[in-house]
């Protein structure tokens, strides 16, 4: 439905240099080696069962010098430290995690079950393990509870 709507909208707006497809981020088109200058995902890492495999694929499809941008929920990757850093408000994100993100991210036998509060320690490790070593993690101006990871290949 989202792909259909986006394709229709692009057609109406006369956009000719964009294509919308549905694919599994863990196994993208094998011919896409070193193909893209920029890849971004928005709030779509911590819900995946195997975000490690998806990020390795993103590394593969990026050109040398290409950038991967990932917006995620801010967190320390430690429950106690989250409470100290973000206060009681972070309980809302742990609740969302228990009722949605952890169940959907635990749905295969090999799932990593990251959850909403994956946090920047685990996020950075996913990027390092995929091969990225130029990584910046910044707060974003539009949502106080998010961070932006910028990883250059
Ligand atoms: C929290 S939603 C975010 C969706 C959208 N980026 C947004 O901000 O509204 C997480 C998305 O990750 C997608 N997802 C989970 N596993 C995936 C995979 N292996 N490949 C591609 N997408 C996946 C889900 O289908 C879901 O749409």
From TrEMBL:
CDD domains: AdoMet_MTases (cd02440). SUPFAM superfamilies: S-adenosyl-L-methionine-dependent methyltransferases (SSF53335). It comes from the Eukaryota. InterPro entries: Methyltranfer_dom (IPR025714), SAM-dependent_MTases_sf (IPR029063). Residues 2-74 form the Methyltransferase domain. This is Methyltranfer_dom domain-containing protein. Gene3D superfamilies: Vaccinia Virus protein VP39. Pfam families: Methyltransf_31.
